[in-house]
Write a structure and sequence with these properties.
The protein starts with a helix and ends in a 6-residue tail after the last helix. The chain has 3 domains: 67 residues; 153 residues, Histidine kinase-like ATPase, C-terminal domain (Heat Shock Protein 90); 119 residues, 3-Layer(aba) Sandwich (Rossmann fold), CATH 3.40.50. Helix 1 runs antiparallel to helix 2, helix 1 packs across helix 8 and helix 4 packs antiparallel against helix 6. 45% of the residues lie in helices and 20% in strands.
Length: 365
């Protein structure tokens, strides 16, 4: 419980930091995308803009890592074969360990199937493997196992023959930002993020380690039944484009209001902007023909969800694209069940991502 409370506190702190950083990245990304369309005949400039875009994407990934350890929900889960996941991650690792590591696989049959956010679970497995390899600087054996236990549940175990952890280190191993690696070699988020991944998948994470004898980390996850595997998982429709729309951008950050409208306008839409939820309600009342709102979730005073609630009193079918740097804080069921005219997009977003998100509304006419 103490560890969970610590994660909750750090998650709230990180979410606030991530929001501000994401707004800066979103503004940079939007300007780069807009200018790239204008510089199609200047290859040197395009190369420079592409470098900025790549740096922005890396920043976005770092921000995702900053908040991932506090995530509680799954965004797009799907039936996932653990044995296949292990094979894919080991194939990647074998190409980068210069044959210093001996890999041993002990995989149960038939393959265990879990309901998982596949990329997130793969990242958790890779984190465990990298930690294990780091604990064997002179080489060693890395064993990956899958199995079944009563529950019904499945296990995914990563075991190394490395240096192991002392009791004091083991006690803090899953704390966010705790690391024994040299400065610049680790963020201290690997095990805490893996722990969060296990919890959000309805499972648990167990660590057994002895100094000089290695470490064994086991993920325990609920196993899908045959009936659950056969049940289709609903996903949001995604279409590449839509007709020109009248769009209102609602965001308290002036960098966003100065950059996003120009980027969205390159898709052929007419975009206006306001700085708050209350301004948005007034603007929409005066401009009833607006087709869609890009609504920031994290705003002072009246946030995006409160603005949406009031908006729905008079415009229940107005299309709304809720923009947030903390997607996991929005209930996933809301997108499909409670409000069919709502979609969610993660900040910062690219031109292609906003085009796809807007295109997803075109089926509604």
């Amino acid at each position: 419980m103490h560890h969970a409370q610590k994660l909750e506190s750090l998650g709230s702190l990180s979410a606030g930091i991530a929001h501000d950083i994401n707004n800066v990245l979103a503004a940079i990304y939007a300007v780069v995308e807009t200018q790239s369309l204008k510089a199609i005949h200047d290859q040197d400039l395009l190369n420079s803009l592409d470098l900025i875009a790549k740096a922005t994407k890396r920043g976005r990934n770092l921000v995702c890592g900053l908040t991932a350890f506090a995530r509680k929900d799954l965004l797009e889960p799907e039936p996932t074969d653990l044995n296949t996941l292990v094979h894919q991650e080991v194939d990647l690792l074998k190409r980068s360990t210069l044959q210093m590591i001996e890999f041993t696989l002990d995989l149960v049959e038939p393959p265990p199937i879990v309901l998982a956010e596949r990329n997130r679970l793969a990242a958790a497995l890779m984190n465990l493997c990298i930690n294990a390899i780091d604990a064997m600087p002179s080489g060693g054996r890395l064993t990956l196992r899958t199995g079944r236990i009563p529950g019904p549940a499945v296990t995914l175990t990563v075991e190394d023959s490395g240096t192991g952890m002392s009791p004091s280190v083991l006690q803090k191993a899953m704390d966010p930002f705790f690391t024994t690696k040299a400065l610049g070699k680790g963020t201290g988020l690997g095990l805490s993020t893996t722990y969060s991944t296990a919890k959000s998948h309805g499972g648990s994470l167990l660590i057994d380690s002895t100094p000089g004898r290695g470490t064994k980390v086991t993920l325990q996850l609920p196993e899908l039944s045959a009936a659950e595997i056969a049940k289709p998982i609903e996903k949001l429709p995604s279409e590449p484009s839509c007709g020109a729309m009248s769009i209102l951008l609602v965001d308290d950050d002036e960098l966003i209001r100065a950059s996003i409208p120009d980027m969205v306008a390159t898709l052929g839409h007419l975009v206006d902007s306001v700085a708050s939820g209350r301004e948005a309600l007034g603007w929409i009342a005066a401009n009833p023909k607006v087709d869609l709102i890009i609504l920031d979730q994290n705003m002072p005073g009246m946030d995006g969800m409160e603005t949406l609630r009031l908006l729905r009193l008079n415009r229940p079918q107005l299309l709304v694209l809720l923009a947030t740097g903390n997607v996991e804080a929005i209930p996933a069921s809301m997108m499909l069940e409670n409000d069919p005219f709502l979609r969610i997009i993660a900040k910062p977003f690219s031109l292609r991502e906003i085009e796809t998100a807007l295109g997803g509304f075109s089926r509604m006419g």
